[in-house]
Amino acid sequence: MNTAYQSLCARLMMAGVPDARFDAVQLYKFVTGRDPRLDNGPTPDEASSLRVLGERRAAREPLQYLLGEWDFMDFTLKVGRGVLCPRADSEVVCEAAIELLKDAEAPVVYDLCAGTGCLGLGIARHLPGAAVTCVEKSADAWPYLTANVAGTGVQAVQDDIFTYYNRLPSGGADLIISNPPYLTAEEMAHLMPETAREPAMALEAGEDGLVFYRALAQHYKNALCPGGALVLEIGWQQREAVTALLAENGWAEIRCIQDFGGNDRCVTARRPK
Fold first, then answer.
1. Helical residues (DSSP H) of the chain, grouped into ranges
2. DSSP state, 183?
3. Residues 233, 183: contact at Cβ < 8 Å?
4. Which one, 26, 128, 172, 270, has least CB within 10 Å?
5. Distance between CA atoms of 203 and 196, rounded to whole angstroms?
6. Which residues are CB-contacts of 70 (< 8 A; sequence separation ≥ 6)?
């Protein structure tokens, strides 16, 4: 009987960790390289490492940070403190962009507020002819982005999206994708413990959660070629506000896509032809 694994499960459950058994399996495999359900138990050194990681997880440090990497679509990304953890719901956003670009031969793509680079890298993996640039301001997120894009052909740029549009050629992009910060001040005050450990810079977007969407709607249309697409991840209650912003700023073919849980998650629009 693997008492170390059972103790780890019990500790995480007691701390209120969601999916405690899953997390315990992942931490055990990370430390030992073995499945705890098929293992007799850890060595003394492994047991010591497990206790340390177990306490950190019980303190609600994100599992992704403890493991140092996380899967997104069909690839693995380096993650850690200072960068937003990739979510499965964002895969819907990436897939929407890939679908919009399916007939383009060598599309030019910008991933704004890129974080780990998950969206830009997902596009590049599925559309090898794409020229993808990931743009990220955060100095804390930057090491993860550069590590993730290394050797992929995807470019990384450290810049601020509130001014970056001034440096883009008019009509030069086929698609702009972004998962910007979009939480309101009220939502920031009621985060899950794990999310509260992620960088506020990647989450908070002013009193109404729309600061970044305003900038994207107002300033990035001219960076796209006529008919070029904008793909945005949104919060589950933001469809009406974001689509209204896009309509007010002259975007066309605005539509919303739901995530795997049936929540509004992605808004797409085009620069009019």
1. 3-14, 20-32, 44-58, 63-67, 89-100, 118-126, 142-149, 161-164, 185-188, 193-196, 211-219, 239-248
2. B
3. no
4. 128
5. 9
6. 64, 76, 77, 79, 85, 86
Instruction: Give the C-alpha separation, 15 to 231, whole Å.
Output: 38
CB contact at 8 A, 140 and 199: yes
**pTM beyond cutoff 0.90:** yes
Backbone φ and ψ of 148, nearest 5°: -70, -35
SS3 249: coil
Asked if residues 119 and 111 have their Cβ atoms less than 8 Å apart, the reply is yes
The radius of gyration of the chain from alpha carbons, rounded to an integer in Å, stands at 20
Mean pLDDT on 53-65: 97
Report the half-sphere exposure of 140 (CA within 13 A, side-chain side): 11
Number of C-beta neighbours around residue 272 at 10 A? 11
Residue 270 near residue 227, CB atoms below 8 Å = yes
Angstrom distances, CA of residue 42 to CA of 26, 33, 67: 14, 10, 18
- The amino acid at residue 182 is Y
Cα–Cα distance measured from residue 157 to residue 258, given in angstroms and rounded to the nearest whole number: 30
Phi, psi of 258 (to 5 degrees): -90, 155
Please answer whether residues 109 and 120 qualify as being in contact, where contact means their C-beta atoms are separated by less than 8 angstroms: yes
Residue 1 has pLDDT above 80, yes or no: no
Provide the token pair at 122.
Answer: 């997902």
For 267, the token pair is 């808004």
User: Which pLDDT belongs to residue 192?
Assistant: 86
Q: Strand 131-136 to strand 108-112: parallel, antiparallel, or no bridges (unpaired)?
A: parallel
